[in-house]
Amino acid sequence: MARELITLEHIYKSYGDQLVLDDLSLMIKENSFVTLLGPSGCGKTTTLRIIGGFEYPDSGAVVFDGKNITDLSPNKRNLNTVFQKYALFPHMTVEENIAFGLKISNKSQQYIKDKVKYALKLLNMDGFEQRKPDSLSGGQQQRVAIARAIVNEPKVLLLDEPLGALDLKMRQGMQYELMRLKNELGITFIYVTHDQEEALTMSDHIIVMNQGYIQQEGTPEMIYNEPENAFVADFIGDSNILRAKMIQDKLVEIQGAKFACVDVGFGQNNPVDVVIRPEDIELLEPEKGIIKGRVLNTVFRGVHYEMEVEAHNYKWLVHSTRMKEVGQEVGLYVDPFNIQVMNVPESEDEEAISELEQTE
Ligand SMILES: Nc1ncnc2c1ncn2[C@@H]1O[C@H](COP(=O)(O)OP(=O)(O)OP(=O)(O)O)[C@@H](O)[C@H]1O
Ligand SMILES: [Mg+2]
User: Fold this and answer.
1) Which atom, in ligand 1's list, is nearest to the CA of 48?
2) Cα angle vertex 124, ends 118, 126, to 5°?
């Protein structure tokens, strides 16, 4: 098992009277691709800046390779950052931009030349040495910013929404390149994004944040398939989230109908939330489902149809490769394994969820 490289221990950080990080603790393993994911303002950049040494916590510790580095300046930490608003030096060529950090650390000319050449090749930018940043596309500038960070051979690369300015196609291309870079260079990536798909695609480990604390962490599969609360379920992908009643172990009542599930330990007749992914709902003959509904609308999405089915005043979102006509009566069936039971969220999570829904 990979060893621990960075840990944050009980970090608190406030700006004025706003508490931005609230007892944040996390651990990052060597050579992993870890993503901090969460809505705007949840504290991702602040966390990254504390790891990088550009910001100091009010209390708590940053430990790197077993050493407490909480008070160490950024240039004494073996890591490099690509900032949310990356800035290349406009008057310098691509080559000079990339070489800048190496020059100030007094490396030999030959060493610098070789390193720059290697970095440009790695990022498919050979031939661009003499160009100025304003003659490059957004994606090319982004590559130069990354090349500039990796020539210093950091143990850790911190990336703050590095692909935010790129269009979808270019972003996907760069996602693959970053994953390739991580594997080729063997460095640890700490990546910040508010884009769920990006996080699911690239990460070994995802840390979902909201309002300065961690909601859930785990592999992309865990976060997607087994969200621990309604905030995570709602933030990661489309889902049906319903208030329900846990009748007993392995039996939950949703809108008056009893669904078999696999969850235990939620007590008897307790309120819970359930999350059911749209692709996990089967539409059968009306009598064969667990509850009956009527198709409200159907949209073709390429691989699947996206349908809204109304049952007991709730609009279920259903994805299926088989289309049902609008107005058709259907029976909804869900396999017990595909029902995820969660504790009812705390009030501030409820607020965050309603905010998320408003911005969708
Ligand atoms: N220097 C600062 N002074 C005062 N408040 C700050 C400062 N930096 C950040 N904040 C506040 O701290 C909170 C968290 O900010 P942070 O930049 O960490 O969010 P984020 O998760 O990176 O958001 P985004 O996705 O929009 O980049 C925000 O409410 C922000 O306004
Ligand atoms: Mg940010």
Assistant:
1) 18
2) 60
Which tens digits make up the pLDDT trace of 75-116?
888 888 887 776 899 999 999 999 998 998 888 999 999 999
DSSP result, 2-64 = PPEEEEEEEEEEEETTEEEEEEEEEEEETT-EEEEE-STTSSHHHHHHHHHTSS--SEEEEEE
Q: Three-class SS of residue 275?
A: strand
d(CA 342, CA 345): 8
| CA–CA separation, 22 and 211 (whole Å) | 8
Q: Which ligand is nearest to the CA of 209?
A: 1
Close Cβ partners of 196 (under 8 Å, ≥ 6 residues apart): 37, 235, 236, 237
Query: How is residue 125 annotated by DSSP?
Result: -
Give the residue whose CA is nearest to atom 19 of ligand 1: 41
pTM (2 d.p.): 0.84
Write out the two tokens for 323: 């289309």
Q: Which domains does the chain have, with CATH numbers?
A: 4-225 (3.40.50.300), 238-359 (2.40.50.140)
**Which residues are CB-neighbours of 336 under 8 A, at least 6 positions away?**
250, 259, 260, 261, 262
Q: 211 CB less than 6 Å from ligand 1?
A: no
